[in-house]
# Entry
Amino acid sequence: MKVNANIPSTLSEITLGQYQKYLKIQDSNEDENFLAIKMIEIFCGLRGDTIMTMRAKSIKDITAVLVEMFKEKPALVTSFTMNDKEYGFIPILEDMSFGEYVDLDTYIGDFENLHKAMTVLYRPIKQKVKNKYLIEDYNGDDSDLMKGMPMNAVLSSILFFYHLGMDLSKVMLNYLQEEEMTLAQAQILEKSGVGINQFSACLTEILQDLKISLN
# Structure
């Protein structure tokens, strides 16, 4: 049976929510045939019963394209448009607030909640002049919206932190040296396990889940 499949050609055509859905299925199933069907179902928008009528070679070719696509190593995506609104990567990491840092540190290593970390890193642009822009204040309540963001932006931001070796712990501790650290803040830092080693380990685990080479 001939089926017209809308096969994504780049990671920008796949959303974070779609990948989270697939990863959850992948974590609980090892059957390659089942995963191939789910991959095409989720990323190409086809029904499972329709996929079953397709030629086996077509299934193999489509999954090969999708697997290869997830090996991409995109440069940092500084902005993207979602729902007719432009989002920008946080311009100055050192200006990150304590609350933003804690949320980023908490969710960056949890792929199921990675959209919450992306809410810290990408916000709606409220003012833009040429290549410079200002983003809206952080609002964690809008995190579910980020499930619709493109995977090239998600992956690029993770790779950015991994390769740059950005020590967010040091950034935050420098900030706290200029501000009075309360007992509650100190306890949160201790509980979240502040440290670049932990942060890097979280990023490494995410990249391994994505089957991305770290070299």
The longest strand covers residues 122-129. Strands lie at 79-82, 85-89, 122-129, 132-135. Confidence is low (pLDDT under 50) at residues 183-200. The chain has ten helices and four strands.
